[in-house]
């Protein structure tokens, strides 16, 4: 059973809160040709373990498709609409003595 989506920053685990505050820390994972024109790159976030899959045209470098795969508990509820600053305030609160 999937974990319920979060509603407020205080409900997020530290790695998820960090990525929501500052963005992901991507490193290159797998790379695979998809035919003669396209290349699929998988990028992995070193902090929250999210995966970003980009399909890129090898001739012109344009991204054809991009999708993300997240760990349970990362995604916010639909329509949450919180900005990065809201997550940063929670992160600072956790780090303050």
Q: What does the model show?
A:
Helix 1 crosses helix 2. The protein is of the alpha+beta class and 97 residues long. The protein has one domain. A four-stranded antiparallel β-sheet has the order 1-2-3-4, with no helix packed on it. The chain is elongated. The mean pLDDT is 90. The termini are far apart. The chain has two helices and four strands, in the order H-E-E-E-E-H.
Which structural traits does this protein have?
2 helices; alpha+beta
Quick summary:
The chain has two helices and four strands. With 97 residues, the protein is of the alpha+beta class.
| Quaternary structure classification | single chain
Ends apart, CA distance between termini: 36 Å
| Rounded average pLDDT | 90
Number of strands: 4
- What is the approximate shape? elongated
List the helices and strands and how they pair.
Blueprint: H1 14-22, E1 26-34, E2 38-45, E3 51-57, E4 63-69, H2 84-95
Antiparallel strand pairs: 1-2, 2-3, 3-4
Helix pairs in contact: 1-2
């Amino acid at each position: 059973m999937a974990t319920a989506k979060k509603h407020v920053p205080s409900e997020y685990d530290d790695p998820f809160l960090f990525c929501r505050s500052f963005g992901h820390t991507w490193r290159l994972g797998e790379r695979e040709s998809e035919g003669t024109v396209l290349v699929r790159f998988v990028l992995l976030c070193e902090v929250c373990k999210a995966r970003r899959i980009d399909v890129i045209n090898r001739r012109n470098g344009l991204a054809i498709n991009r999708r993300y795969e997240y760990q349970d508990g990362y995604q916010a509820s639909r329509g949450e609409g919180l900005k990065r600053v809201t997550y940063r305030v929670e992160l600072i609160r956790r780090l303050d003595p």
